[in-house]
Write a structure and sequence with these properties.
The protein contains 6 helices and 7 strands; from the N terminus they run βαααβββαβαββα. By secondary structure, the chain is of the alpha+beta class. The chain is globular.
């Protein structure tokens, strides 16, 4: 992907200082609408949020999660790999820009680009896939801009607000990303 117009971001390891940002973002229903979270409000307590971050830091939950930082050092979200299959060289990507003042400005694309580079080069993945709810058109369009292609519909794949919703599975291959 040609990315000269995208804002610069840095991905860094999570720290316990990220807990309050993450907790505040999980209180915003617009931020969490398309995230896989418990059907309660708030979805997580501060203590649960901190415990999750501690598991990410110690790498005991199967996630490779990074904080997304602006060029000026502001923490605005997270991006991760999960379901990492080292044998078959693929993983699932997840991303969220929690600070809504950075929505629709290219920060998610920039962070995703950095994570894909890291996944393909450092983790030696061949394929990075994701699941996105079919009514999340802005995200789907962003993934297509990045070069993801549709693999198929996962029918009734998520239970959200008392009903099942379909999700689209999309993926990008290493040679597609670098060519």
């Amino acid at each position: 992907m040609n990315t000269p117009q995208l804002p610069k971001v840095q991905l860094r390891e999570l720290t316990l200082d990220d807990t309050e940002d993450r907790y505040q973002w999980c209180l915003d229903k617009e931020v969490t609408k398309h995230l896989n979270m418990p059907e309660r409000y708030p979805p997580f307590s501060r203590e649960e949020t901190q415990a999750w971050i501690e598991m990410c830091i110690s790498k005991t939950n199967g996630y490779e999660q990074k904080a997304i930082m602006t060029e000026k050092g502001k923490h605005i979200g997270w991006v991760d790999f999960k379901n990492i299959d080292k044998l078959n060289k693929h993983a699932e990507l997840g991303i969220a820009i929690g600070d809504k003042s950075y929505w629709r400005k290219g920060y998610g694309l920039s962070a995703m680009n950095e994570m894909l580079i890291w996944g393909f080069r450092q983790l030696e993945l061949n394929k990075i896939w994701l699941r996105v709810e079919i009514d999340n058109e802005k995200a789907i369009n962003s993934y297509k801009k990045m070069g993801y292609v549709e693999e198929g519909i996962l029918r009734q794949d998520r239970f959200r607000n008392g009903e099942f919703v379909d999700r689209l599975r999309m993926s990008i291959l290493k040679d597609e990303f670098f060519n």
